[in-house]
Each structure stands twice: as structure tokens, then as C-alpha cells.
Specification:
14 strands, single chain, binds adenosine-5'-diphosphate, binds magnesium ion, DNA mismatch repair protein Mlh1-like, nine-stranded mixed sheet, 326 residues, alpha+beta
Length: 326
């Protein structure tokens, strides 16, 4: 059973960057305002995230790494909503099957922090009291130590770090009120955004002034299909060989290939061949319209009325881009 669980876990946690994505979302769900990540060897030796969120109650520490343990479902409706993105209550459990996992945490009510290590979904020993601030530190060490093939399939530590850095940057832009720090162990931060920042400021910090000075805010509210779009795209003066797209659906970083294609079509009239814009697009759509059949490991998401919604977005971007051109 341990092996089966390990394989299942390896399906969910495919590389350090998607472990980080899960950890970031947990810290954000816990209402953190400052999130700091430390990495050794592209996240394979060490991936540590420290937040100042609500913390985990002492009595819940025994179960947080069990499969399907989640504090985030309160009703059936929640279940359908959250199921949108597949796995729930599986991230920490999965990590405990494919890495050495330690949690240190303190809630506002507790007098001290508690620390515990996990293996294969279970506490190794009762949590030990220790000193610590409110919030949670999750430490993932030796990722895939027990899955040599998976480890071999990964890119170099530098490339894995780059992926971590990309995920971090995208979340830092979407959640600009939260301060984010990313650093390699023992080094100065490579990413640092202040708390209470703005999305524009963070785009400038993370993607540079040449993008930041060409930003166009875009917005759309649609009552027919009940969705909202907000974001920033670059005006036609900016273009780059590298396409930078940040798509969020209901606050989760996703890939939407139909939207990517639409974006390319919008800009094809303006940009030289092979050149791309920068685009950050955040969609809020009715959770029950998101395809629940999409496998959790796929970051590609589909939703009901996708063609209509993407077409509407395309028209809006086109119009707003044209408007900014005049
Ligand atoms: P999910 O996020 O789907 O609930 P996870 O496996 O990611 O499942 O996390 C399990 C539970 O552990 C969460 O529901 C939450 O109660 C708790 N948890 C995880 N990370 C944190 C954190 N950084 N701060 C507070 N609670 C956390
Ligand atoms: Mg989670």
C-alpha cells in the first residue's frame, strides 16, 4: 500500500515547482500577509515555506497529512466548487509520501509553537512544543528520495529553481497585498515584494520596467455567462520573443490553451511574427462551470461555455487594445 500511495503521490507532486504551488495556496488560504520561501538545489534538497497565517491547531497536527484531510470543505456545494481543481486535502499527504516533511506551526490561541515530522501520511512522533511565531513553517527535504526515476526525470537544479521562481512571481503578482520572498539557502533573496504592494508595482519588480511602462489594465464583467475578467496586458509597443502569460481562474494558477491562442490572435495584427505580449489575466467564473473531470495533475483547465467566454474576452482585449492605440 505504501508503494501505491507513493506512486499516486508522485502523480500529484511532479516536481518542486508544483509542490511549491500547493504550499503557496495553503499559506494564502491561511490568510498570510508575508510568505518566505527558501530553496536548496532547485527545491530537491530543501523547499521551505514560512508564513504568518492562522497556523494549524495542535489537535489537527496528527491528521493534516492524511489523505483527504482538509479544513476547507463545509458543505456539499463547497465540495463541488473545490473539486473543480481536482485534488483536495491531498497535497500535504502526497508530499509526506515522497519527501521528508516537517511542520512547525502556531495558532494565535496556542502559547507556543509545535513541531512534527511526517512519513507516509503519518506523524512520526507526537508534536513537540518549541518557540515560534504565529504561522506555519513547512519543510520539505529530499524530494523524491524514494523515487529515483522521478528524480532523474527532472531538469537541473537551476532549471527547477527557475520554475519555482516563475510560480512565485505569478502568485506575487496575483496576490500583490501579500509580501513574497524567495531565496536560495544562505543567499540574498532573488525575489522580494513588499506587503500591500500593487499588481503594477510587482510586475515592474518581477518582470521589469519595459513591461511595466506599457501596461494596459483590462476588465470585463459578463452577466450572460456570469464571469469576470481583470488583468494587465502590454500595449502594442512592447513585444518579446518570450511569451509571458499569467492565467488565474478563481485565484488558482492554470493553463488555458484556448485563451493563449485567442491572445496570440489578438496580437498577431500588431506584433511581428514570433513576438509576444505580456499578459496577466484573472478570471472569476462560476465554480460549478469548471470541468471537474480534468485530472488534477493537468494544469490545463476547461470550463463550461469556454468558447463563448474566450471569444468575449478576445473581443474585449481587442477593443481595449485598439482604444489604447488611438
Ligand atoms: P487542502 O489545502 O486541499 O485542504 P492540503 O493537503 O493542502 O489540503 O492541506 C491540508 C490541511 O492542512 C489544510 O486544509 C489546512 O487545514 C492545513 N494547512 C496546510 N498548510 C497550512 C498553512 N500554511 N497554514 C495553515 N493551515 C495549513
Ligand atoms: Mg492545499
Amino acid at each position: 500500500e505504501v508503494v501505491v500511495n507513493r506512486i499516486a503521490a508522485g502523480e500529484i507532486i511532479q516536481r518542486p515547482a508544483n509542490a511549491l504551488k500547493e504550499l503557496l495556496e495553503n499559506s494564502l488560504d491561511a490568510k498570510s500577509t508575508v510568505i518566505q520561501v527558501t530553496v536548496k538545489s532547485g527545491g530537491l534538497k530543501l523547499l521551505q515555506i514560512q508564513d504568518n497565517g492562522t497556523g494549524i491547531r495542535r489537535e489537527d497536527m496528527a491528521i493534516v497529512c492524511e489523505r483527504f484531510t482538509t479544513s476547507k470543505l463545509t458543505s456539499f456545494e463547497d465540495l463541488t466548487n473545490i473539486a473543480t481543481f481536482g485534488f483536495r486535502g491531498e497535497a500535504l499527504a502526497s508530499m509526506s509520501h515522497v519527501a521528508h516533511l516537517t511542520i512547525q506551526t502556531k495558532t494565535a490561541k496556542e502559547k507556543c509553537a509545535y513541531k512534527a515530522s511526517y512519513e507516509d501520511g503519518k506523524l512520526k512522533a507526537p508534536p513537540k512544543p518549541c518557540a515560534g511565531n504565529q504561522g506555519t513553517i513547512i519543510t520539505i527535504e529530499d524530494l523524491f528520495y524514494n523515487m529515483p526515476q522521478r528524480k532523474q526525470a527532472l531538469k537541473s537544479p537551476n532549471e527547477e529553481f527557475q520554475r519555482i521562481s516563475n510560480v512565485m512571481s505569478k502568485y506575487a503578482i496575483h496576490n500583490s497585498k501579500v509580501g513574497f520572498t524567495l531565496k536560495r539557502y544562505g543567499e540574498q533573496p532573488s525575489i522580494k515584494t513588499p506587503p500591500n504592494s500593487s499588481q503594477q508595482t510587482n510586475i515592474e519588480i518581477l518582470y521589469g520596467a519595459s513591461i511595466a511602462k506599457e501596461l494596459l489594465p483590462v476588465e470585463l464583467k459578463d452577466d450572460v455567462h456570469k464571469f469576470q475578467m481583470k488583468g494587465y496586458i502590454t500595449k502594442v509597443n512592447y513585444s518579446s520573443k518570450k511569451a509571458i502569460t499569467l492565467f488565474f481562474i478563481n485565484h488558482r494558477l492554470v493553463e488555458v490553451s484556448s485563451l493563449k491562442t485567442a491572445l496570440d490572435n489578438v496580437y498577431s495584427t500588431y506584433l511581428p511574427r514570433g513576438m509576444h505580449p505580456f499578459a496577466y489575466i484573472s478570471l472569476e467564473i462560476n465554480p460549478s462551470n469548471i470541468d471537474v473531470n480534468v485530472h488534477p495533475t493537468k494544469h490545463e483547465v476547461h470550463f463550461l461555455y469556454e468558447d463563448e467566454i474566450v471569444e468575449k474576452i478576445k473581443q474585449t482585449l481587442e477593443a481595449q487594445l485598439l482604444g489604447s492605440n488611438e
